[in-house]
Design goal:
1 helix; 415 residues; 54% strand; two-stranded antiparallel sheet
Length: 415
């Protein structure tokens, strides 16, 4: 055989910049911050982009979104860089501005316009942080552990039911300087297959703990509710999946799945308050056509068919069970349009969640619960350059408030 010719080329040091630069952008939408059906903060629209080098040592992401009407009212910003040069742990650095609603407050009688007059406290947090993540991955299992710290500047305000800043009430000390420490440990054996409609087998457990402490607070205000923002919090999550062989009428490309989940959260400290955890959400009464809720997030303590923030407390729990079945293997696209419709699934579900909070005397705890049942359809599809998305549309029937059937549309599995 003829000898192969040597290939020439420039030899130079490895640089991640050439492969880690941004190569796409995607639209980004965040739903309004709602409290019991009231839009406290407006929806935001923006973009997200990300990049990584060829060997995965550098991974970064940027998000920016603002409301159409007033860009300065609720900017949602995120910049994240993850570095794996040490192997283990992977280091993650982030900067973020985030806005959220903190519940409801009853207006004092001397300023109220009616017996049910309420206002809505809000929070803007600007935070920088660093995390270290260790992952031990095996063929059918993984274990992870992370620790992190945050420096936070919080600005709180009060809004009226129409979303405007309140001129009737204001907070005595709206600005806070906070520090935060956090840790989490998780383990899982969850797995699926190329044509699965959902994770099919295994279980996962995650426990998260964090502590916030208020900096530069006068001694006279330490431990005072409404002034001291310090608190401790522990949240536990467990998910389980079991595949089922389905009878002949169902398609054979995937198996059915029974999925269960549980969540529990406990918070303590003057900064936690009676509204620390929010239960409800995941498809509540929206302002779209026919009461449709669009893209409302599925929080930890979700109950589909109820508005987010329906219940609040410093202790919370939730549980769900679902039966998911395949409907069709679509595998459809049209020309060069960057949309691919992959699979269609359906399911039935039952959700329940509850919260506990101190009673009026500060001693006896008050517990409340919400539950719902419903059906939904899930479309697995790919759009532009993003990973495969799961778009769920369904109807839920709340079992506690008699409000009737409520439709919703969401992205991602409920769990």
């Amino acid at each position: 055989a003829a000898p192969q010719e040597a290939m020439g080329g420039e030899v130079r040091r490895w640089s991640a910049l050439s492969s880690a630069r941004p190569r796409f952008w995607l639209p980004f939408v965040a739903a309004p911050e709602r409290e019991a059906g009231v839009d406290v903060l407006p929806a935001v629209v923006g973009f997200t982009t990300q990049g990584r080098d060829l060997v995965g040592r550098h991974i970064w992401e940027v998000q920016a979104a603002v409301p159409w009407s007033d860009p300065g009212e609720r900017p949602e910003l995120l910049a994240l860089w993850s570095w794996g040069g040490l192997g283990q742990p992977r280091l993650i650095f982030s900067a973020q501005e985030r806005h959220e609603s903190l519940g409801r407050l009853r207006v004092p009688d001397d300023r109220a316009t009616g017996p049910d007059d309420v206002v809505f406290p809000t929070s803007r947090e600007r935070r920088v942080g660093a995390d270290a993540l260790w992952v031990r991955a095996r063929l059918r299992s993984s274990v992870s552990f992370s620790v992190g710290a945050r420096e936070i500047r919080e600005s709180r305000g009060i809004r009226e039911a129409d979303g405007s800043v309140s001129d009737r009430l204001r907070l005595a000390r709206p600005e806070r300087a906070l520090g935060e420490l956090r840790a989490s440990v998780g383990a899982g054996t969850v797995r699926g297959h190329p044509f699965s409609i959902s994770p099919e087998a295994g279980a996962s457990v995650l426990v998260q703990a964090r502590e916030r402490f208020h900096r530069n607070l006068p001694d006279s205000l330490q431990g005072a509710a409404g002034f001291d923002g310090s608190y401790r919090e522990v949240v536990g999550l467990v998910h389980g999946y079991r595949a089922l062989e389905l009878p002949g009428p169902f398609p054979s490309f995937a198996r059915g799945v029974v999925a269960v989940r549980g969540a529990v959260g406990v918070a303590d400290g003057s900064g936690a308050g009676a509204g620390h955890f929010s239960a409800g959400g995941g498809g509540g009464r929206g302002d779209g056509l026919g009461g449709l809720s669009l893209w409302e997030p599925n929080p930890t303590f979700s109950v589909r068919g109820t508005p987010r923030g329906t219940l609040r407390g410093d202790q919370a729990w939730a549980a769900s069970v679902e039966m998911r079945v395949p409907v069709a293997n679509l595998h459809r696209a049209r020309g060069t349009v960057p949309v691919h419709l992959d699979r269609l699934a359906a399911g039935v579900f039952a959700d329940v969640a509850g919260v506990g909070r101190p009673g009026p005397d500060g001693m006896d705890r008050r517990w409340e619960r919400r539950s719902s049942v419903g059906v939904e359809a899930t479309l697995l599809a790919s759009f532009f350059f993003a990973p495969q998305q799961r778009i769920r549309g369904g109807v839920a029937l709340p079992l506690d408030d008699g409000g009737g059937i409520r439709p919703y549309l969401q992205v991602g599995w409920s769990f």
